[in-house]
Specification:
This protein has 611 residues and is α/β, with parallel strands linked by helices. Helix content is 35%, strand content 23%.
Length: 611
């Protein structure tokens, strides 16, 4: 949520800031703005898309070599020009952009009003900036010192970048709980919420840690903690290239990322799974693999699509490793006073690595004595730094708001971990292990074959784009896939959709069935086949519109319904990697048929960095 871009250096800042904001549009936002210092401090901001901001800029852009910019996702105050960032100090000399939420802003605002401050917006950001201004003026101190004192008084999360027109050759930034990456160039620095606005200009980056303050000029980066102690910047190479954040000929990022899955899953397996000598190597878990093997309990914490990956993992780990598993919404886990003890292993799942609820849940788990591991996509993210160890999924940047390739990447990593642990625990024998290694290695090719012809899915999407409701049903390990299919459809097409275990159909959902309701069954030739067949007959008897995902060689169910999508054969335990692909495509094609922006669904953000 929200996005920050800032620049200081020898180039004109305006085009860098505008391009950077466009690269961050996938994060979700409702207004945009920038502040640039040339001969004076110039601020422009506008409700709506970045294009609306561009329309109010002077022809040729705003001159100046230092600037800050922001895309806002409204929290405090409705979307409006006034509430858009940057916000200004009381005297107009400071401009600031901010990601996060300041929880005690009302108390601070009342205090500042008594001191004569007047506020023009409804935002907590303006209050934060006025606090910095008040401290700076009262103490006659440097801006960096005022920021250091201010962050001790605010409660909540933040990334801020402040520009002072009295010292425009410097930017001050600070973070807690929201991401900030600094790109290191030659006589220039770039700041952003993630690497996508930076990668065009440099591959060298510093990830700012919580409670750190960055003081930047064109030629210097200084990092300090809140106690004014210097820290040495650790420069990393960005795990991203420019091509990976462009559409590459596809109409939408979502479609590109669906079609990238064979490549991303091969990347995820590369160097880890050796199908010729049947070995799995997980260097990211070398120190804590024994904790997994000896775990009394596994707890997966996640949000959204990652939570569905955790539900699939529950089936995988209990079946292969015989370890009790719980799957928790991170947003609920941290408030429930959960029972955590030594011997528990908590595994955080996240695409972005910046999900606020997951980070707070991890902190709670660590405080309870658990080993906390991470399965994440973004190198250097907050979740990976908070974990004891972890495994990257190497799916590459995922720009579409609705997660696709990150979901299958998470699953691949979870299969690898479970198989490694199961072999070490001797809960499966070597022949079974070899069977799964071979089957897992074949998955990318099977997905590639599925993606060669998606015409059947497109025809189904065209038929049901007018649907008002949708029901997804699956049993066993396919139940989480049904949930994921329903989530994708509601995210992308705004059709009300629900996922259920098919065995629960008669406990409520069947009341919804009539001739207008599409019901999608995941009906592979697995141990639940006969049960699913009965469920299908019950829907047909009530004139529901039945769609089925069936095994490639199926003849029985496919003869009973008109709308079927065939899935290549694989082991039942690995089948979610295949069944989710048509559901991603179905959501995509329905969203396109309805004329929606499938990459940026309304009200949604790619990375939920606030509670």
């Amino acid at each position: 949520m929200c996005g920050i871009v800032a620049y200081i250096g020898h180039r004109q800042a305006c085009p860098i800031l505008i391009k950077g904001l466009k690269r961050l549009e996938y994060r979700g936002y409702d207004s945009a703005g920038l502040a640039i210092y040339g001969e004076s401090l110039q601020v422009y901001k506008k409700k709506g898309k970045v294009a609306a901001l561009e329309s109010i800029l002077p022809e040729g852009g705003v001159p100046g070599h230092v600037g800050i910019a922001h895309t806002r996702w409204a929290t405090h105050g409705e979307p409006s020009d006034v509430n858009a960032h940057p916000q200004l100090s009381n005297d107009g000399s400071l401009a600031m952009v901010h990601n996060g939420i300041i929880e005690n802003y009302i108390t601070l605002k009342q205090e500042l009003e008594l001191l004569g401050h007047r506020f023009v917006s409804e935002t907590d950001t303006e209050v934060f900036l006025h606090l910095i201004e008040e401290i700076k003026n009262q103490n006659h101190c440097l801006l960096e010192e005022a920021v250091a004192q201010a962050i001790k008084r605010v409660i909540g999360t933040y990334v801020i970048v402040v520009l002072d027109q009295a010292n425009p050759e410097q930017l001050i930034a600070a973070r807690k709980g929201s991401p900030l990456v600094i790109g290191i160039g030659k006589h220039e620095h770039f700041l952003a919420s993630d690497a996508s606005p930076i990668v065009e200009y440099t591959q060298d980056a510093v990830y700012v840690n919580d409670y750190e303050i960055a003081i930047l000029t064109a030629d210097q980066l200084i990092l300090k903690n809140s106690e004014n102690e210097h820290s040495t910047p650790f420069i990393e190479k960005l795990d991203m290239d420019l091509a990976s954040i462009e559409k590459g000929g596809y109409e939408h990022f979502m479609l590109k990322e669906i079609h990238e899955q064979p490549i991303t899953l091969r990347n995820c397996l590369r160097g880890r799974l050796n199908a010729s000598d049947f070995t799995i190597t997980l260097g990211g878990l070398k120190n804590h693999l024994p904790d997994l093997i000896n775990a009394k309990r596994l707890v997966f914490i996640a949000c959204g699509t990652s939570w569905h990956a955790g539900l699939v993992a529950e089936y995988i780990f209990e079946h292969l490793c015989r370890i009790p598993v719980e799957v928790e919404y991170a947003s609920e886990f941290r408030y429930r006073n959960p029972v955590i003890s030594k011997g528990d292993v908590v595994i955080a799942l996240s695409q972005s690595g910046e999900t606020a609820d997951t980070l707070l849940a991890m902190e709670q788990a660590r405080n309870g004595g658990a080993i906390v591991l991470a399965v994440c996509n973004v190198v250097g993210s907050s979740i990976t730094r908070m974990s004891h160890e972890g495994v990257y999924i190497h799916a590459g940047p995922e720009i579409g708001v609705a997660s696709t390739k990150a979901f299958t990447g998470q699953l691949i990593v979870l299969y690898l971990i479970a198989l490694k642990v199961a072999l070490e625990k001797s809960t499966i024998d070597h022949d079974t292990f070899k069977h799964y290694v071979s089957a897992l290695n074949a998955i990318p090719d099977k997905i590639e074959n599925m993606l060669r012809d998606t015409s059947a899915i497109q025809r189904i999407a065209e038929r049901f784009a007018i649907a008002r409701d949708f029901l997804f049903l699956g049993r066993g390990i396919q139940f989480p896939v049904a949930l994921e299919g329903a989530l994708k459809l509601k995210e992308i097409s705004y059709i009300h959709s629900s996922g259920y275990p098919a065995g629960e159909m008669k406990h409520g959902p069947i009341a919804l069935v009539d001739e207008n309701l599409p019901v999608l069954f995941i009906a592979l030739h697995d141990p639940y086949y006969e049960k699913i067949l009965s469920n299908i007959q019950e829907i047909k008897a009530r004139k529901g519109q039945v769609i089925v995902l069936v095994s490639e060689e199926d003849k029985v169910i496919s003869s009973l319904v008109n709308l079927s999508i065939r899935i290549p054969e694989t082991d039942d335990l690995l089948a979610p990697l295949l069944t989710v692909i048509p559901l991603q495509l179905l959501a995509y094609y329905i969203g396109v048929a309805k004329g929606y922006d499938v990459d940026k669904p309304r009200n949604l953000a790619k990375s939920v960095t606030v509670e």
